[in-house]
Design brief:
It catalyses: 4-(phosphooxy)-L-threonine + 2-oxoglutarate = (R)-3-hydroxy-2-oxo-4-phosphooxybutanoate + L-glutamate; O-phospho-L-serine + 2-oxoglutarate = 3-phosphooxypyruvate + L-glutamate. By secondary structure, the chain is of the alpha/beta class. 34% of the residues lie in helices and 16% in strands. Bound molecules: pyridoxal-5'-phosphate.
Length: 352
């Protein structure tokens, strides 16, 4: 069978050895019981969760004064849980750097006054709003560190007097993130960590306050315990994916590979007579790369051409169109080389 390369932005490609391992263990994880039939309170399952957390702490160098929470509801539920839980003055600052941050802003408005300190909406989010020069008297500053749809990323953080909250759904474990510079990080797992249905929250413990909130929505109810039945299968797969990441050399190795893969692809786009990258300069994402021929019909023709050659999920997000290649940790360099070859083939013969 021909090799398939999956460039999906999410759920994204997972390491094949992990998928094989999961398949092999699925019917009988222990004594004839499948992992999806096992109590989340059993010793066996508790060990999986402990190992998952330990691996994440090692990989991201998470300090002890941060709690790790394994939740559900996607990154989208964090758009609400963050303002609900961090609300003191009821004033929040947001950077509007893309469609996901716009959604985060819309949800935060239910819980307080949102100050949008910068927006690149006017340039269709092709670059990033600058960090605000000064901020005070607000509960936090929210940023989407990697903009999955638009393909931009922040590489520098300002020194602010307020906690920085970052949505790291599409760059967690793909590049180094200096956890101690943030008050809170959150990510849907379905790009670099495992199947959809698990959300990670890494929060500095002093920001966890007991609030009068429905139990599931309060961070304080999830700290150092499983409040309810978690997405057990997802936790199990995530633990295996993190074992793979550690085995491959950790986040440093992932970042090095992602720099190499994305660099190769950006170079090919910059040299192409037909395709070009949508984002320029050092704001370019390592993981999500939107590109286009400048013509919607030709973009669609290329997508079909690539699909016929085993390169799938190259369509841009439905809200922006064009093309996009997501190069998460499990995408091998060979996949990027193959994509570049197919682009060359299309440039030469595919346009009639
Ligand atoms: N934030 C970012 C940066 C994303 O890329 C996504 C999904 O792709 C989301 C939020 C929404 O995540 P979820 O579907 O897990 O709610």
């Amino acid at each position: 069978m021909a090799v398939i390369y999956n460039f999906s932005a999410g759920p994204g490609v997972l390491p094949e050895p992990v998928l094989r391992e999961v398949q092999a263990e699925f019917l009988s994880y222990k004594q004839g019981v499948s992992i999806v039939e096992m109590s989340h309170r059993s010793d066996t399952f508790a060990t999986i969760v402990e190992q998952l957390e330990a691996r994440l702490r090692r990989l991201m160098q998470i300090p002890d004064d941060y709690a790790v929470l394994f939740l559900q509801g996607g990154a989208t539920l964090q758009f609400s849980m963050v303002p609900m839980n961090l609300r003191e003055s009821g004033r929040f600052v947001y950077l509007d750097s893309g469609i996901w941050s716009k959604k985060a802003i819309a949800d935060a408005k239910h819980y307080g006054d949102v100050v949008v300190a910068g927006s690149s909406a006017a340039v269709k989010y092709r670059d990033l709003p600058a960090w605000p020069k000064t901020i005070s008297d607000v509960d936090y500053l929210h940023v989407t560190l990697n903009n999955t749809i638009e393909g931009t990323r922040y590489t520098e953080l300002p020194d602010t007097g307020v906690p920085i909250v970052a949505d790291v759904s599409s760059n967690i474990l793909a590049e180094a993130i200096d956890v101690k510079r943030y008050g809170l990080l959150y990510a849907g797992a379905q790009k670099n960590i495992g199947p959809a249905g698990l959300t990670l929250v890494i929060i500095r413990r002093d920001l966890i306050v007991d609030r009068d909130l429905p139990s599931y929505l309060a961070y304080s109810k999830h700290v150092d315990t499983l409040l309810n039945t978690p997405s057990t299968f997802n936790l199990y797969v995530a633990e295996r994916v993190l074992a793979w990441v550690e085995g491959e050399g950790g986040v440093e190795a992932m970042e090095r590979r992602n720099v190499e893969k994305s660099g190769l692809f950006y170079d090919a786009l910059d040299a192409s007579p037909l395709f070009h990258a949508v984002v320029s300069g050092k704001q370019r994402s390592l993981t999500n790369i939107p590109f286009t021929t400048g013509d919607a019909e030709t973009d669609r023709a290329f997508q079909r051409f690539a699909e016929a050659r085993g390169l799938i999920e190259l369509g841009g997000h439905r809200s922006v169109g064009g093309l996009r290649a997501s190069l998460y940790n499990a995408m091998p360099l060979e996949g990027v080389k193959r994509l570049i070859d197919v682009m060359h083939e299309f440039e030469q013969e595919g346009q009639d």
